[in-house]
Amino acid sequence: MQKSIHDEILSRRTFAIISHPDAGKTTMTEKLLYFGGAIRDAGTVKGKKTGKYATSDWMEIEKQRGISVTSSVLQFDYDGKRVNILDTPGHEDFSEDTYRTLMAVDAAVMMVDSAKGIEPQTIKLFKVCRMRGIPIFTFMNKMDRQGKEPLELMEELEEVLGIESYAMNYPIGMGKEFIGVYDRYNQRIEQARVEGESHFLPLNEDGELAVEHPMTETSYYKQALEDVLLLNEAGNEFDTERVAKGELTPVFFGSALTNFGVQTFLETFLKFAPSPQPRMTKDEQAVDPKAEEFSGFIFKIQANMNPAHRDRIAFVRIVSGSFERGMSVTIPRISKTVKLTQTTQFLADDRETVNEAVAGDIIGLYDTGNYQIGDTVVGGKSNFQFEALPQFTPELFVRVTAKNVMKSKHFHKGILQLVQEGAIQYYKTLHTEEVLLGAVGQLQFEVFEHRMKNEYNVEVHMEHIGSKVARWIENESDVKDSMTGQRSMLVKDRYDNLVFLFENDFALRWFGDKYPDIRLYNLL
Ligand code: G4P
Q1: Can you say how many angstroms the Cα of residue 341 is from the centroid of all Cα atoms in its chain?
Q2: Is ligand 1 within 6 A of the CB of residue 451?
Q3: 421-471 confidence digits (pLDDT tens)
Q4: In this predicted model, what pLDDT tens digit does every residue of 317-337 receive, in sequence order?
Q5: Rounded to an integer, what distance in angstroms lies between the CA atom of residue 511 and that of residue 491?
Q6: Burial of 286 (0-12, 13-18, 19+ CB in 10 A)
Q7: 57 lines ligand 1 (CB under 6 A)
Q8: Which helix (H) or strand (E) holds 110?
Q9: Distance (Å, rounded) from C-alpha 87 to C-alpha 316?
Q10: How do beta strands 180-183 and 188-191 pair?
Q11: Is 286 helix (H, G, I), strand (E, B) or coil?
């Protein structure tokens, strides 16, 4: 029986995995695909260390597995749900796109390397999820290795990220002595390295093993019982509403590599992860995913880096209704109507040819230059626009000039367009009006340089001025020239707002002490 569009929408679970490089995101993704039936063999992707991370890890999976996935969105069905996993490129592919992708998901899975704890890139991505108030599920990975104490890891969540946590399960032993997990949520023990019926062992009413087992004699089991008791008494309560608001993160301990705890995680995650959520328009109206009319917004534009193909793909998160190939949509920003004939859909399994996508899904539109990041596309007669995507605080800066001064016109045109498109951020120095570019990842500069040459025929010279701590100013009129210096450069952003670029956190603090009346703030 065919599902109604409403049921289709309700079955969607769209999320991203956030983590610091090497925490195990690729490995986890692969295991999830395996359970989703999208790949047959959940071996690990080998040899990644040797190559430069010029392309997404997922393309690596694609190459290794020979399966039909695109590098940006993976889709599979599990337990009656259609799961969309959006890639958040890290390593050298880290860029504003990584942040913006988080605008297009309804939930996030945070992978933590249990030996390393919460790492910098995780903190950055977490903050964006936090700002959106989306549910965040934590997977403490690599339990098959000796890592930090489980309670210490949970404390880190609260101390470093400021999010409360609830352990859905709790590890029994660690590293070579990793016996399994005490599954608080399902009231059972899940055994590591044991397949078949006894993989799960039941607990009795006192929360102890209900069957005789040698494990009960081990210090690891006793310790786990003690810790679980402590959590029961002094820890947070499981509260689905707080999970939904992103105030409480359910924590799972496991090992993606040895495939331990992944399936239980997936099943529990799918139970609590939300179906597609409404989005606000600029006029503060919520657009219901089940609304009849199609709507969506563009969160990423990917230019083809191959000069032979100048096409670009605009990634649309569908917010409401359904999409059909060939339909016409309006881009309200430019009041233009376009027919969507050339689209890409992201499917891990190409046996299913789907010409339709619904709220929660991601579609890729071939773009000849119509779209900008943040654009709304709507079907029917609607004309609203979704609220703007946030701008992110850049951390890296370059001073940029055209190698050939005769090309100055093209240079400025190219910059203007790439800035509008969201590929890079534009700043200029106050008196000399030199052009600076800001980015959150080095890749953005490389893409900029490449596209300036290929699309605007301008070779650029980029002088790296390094990483800076950028701060905007609430009371601009109180700022004086004398406050600037080697360690605190003053520039303007593309909207002519003043921005201080501090050499480092130390310089920022020094400035704060010296000029306490200047109210600084950062974007996300
Ligand atoms: P990433 O996408 O987050 O960057 O991480 P990725 O999955 O590539 O994993 C990084 C490394 O950590 C890989 O090892 C991977 O095998 C390992 N790893 C992932 N999950 C686990 C786990 O649960 N336990 C253990 N012990 N290791 C894990 P590598 O040496 O970089 O690559 P490989 O050659 O072993 O594949």
Answers
A1: 29
A2: no
A3: 888 999 999 888 899 999 998 888 988 998 899 889 999 999 999 899 999
A4: 999 999 988 899 999 999 999
A5: 16
A6: exposed
A7: yes
A8: strand 107-113
A9: 14
A10: antiparallel
A11: strand
